[in-house]
Amino acid sequence: MKQIVKRTAWFLFVTCYLAGCGKDGDGPSPEPPPGNGGEGVTVDNVTYANFAGGLFQSRCSSCHTGSGPGTVQWVFSGYSSVRDNLARINDAVIVRKIMPQDGSLTNRQFELLKAWIDKGAPQ
């Protein structure tokens, strides 16, 4: 009986160990979440299309679209709404760091957003 228990335990251990050896990590890297900037995005080439648009969509649109609580200050509706409110956005996000309210930006997001604003918000 002891021998059967040992063999069963060993079999289960080996099975679980091998099940963890899948190929999930061998494929291509997934796309980064919107607004994180892909591998090729730098402070020198950052644009609305390759970074800022995704950031505003993922981090701002939940409050600043439709009837969200942030629409009193600014309504996000694409590039022109960002460009027209760039001074206000710069003050809230870069200078005073009060936005986004649901959590701060990563260092990379902050650095790229600041560079994008400093470059005149290229589309």
Output the structural class: mainly alpha
**SSE succession:** HHHHH
Unreliable segments (pLDDT under 50, ≥5 consecutive)?
16-32
Portion of residues in beta strands equals under 5%
Number of alpha- plus pi-helical segments: 5
* Strand tally: 0
What are the main properties of this structure?
123 residues, 47% helix, 5 helices, mainly alpha
What would your notes on this structure say?
This protein is an all-alpha fold. The protein has a domain at 48-118. The protein has five helices and no strands. The longest helix has 18 residues, at 2-19.
Summarize the model shown:
This protein has 123 residues and is mainly α.
How are the elements arranged and paired?
Blueprint (H helix, E strand, L loop, with lengths): L1 H18 L28 H12 L19 H6 L1 H10 L11 H12 L5
Helix pairs in contact: 2-5, 4-5
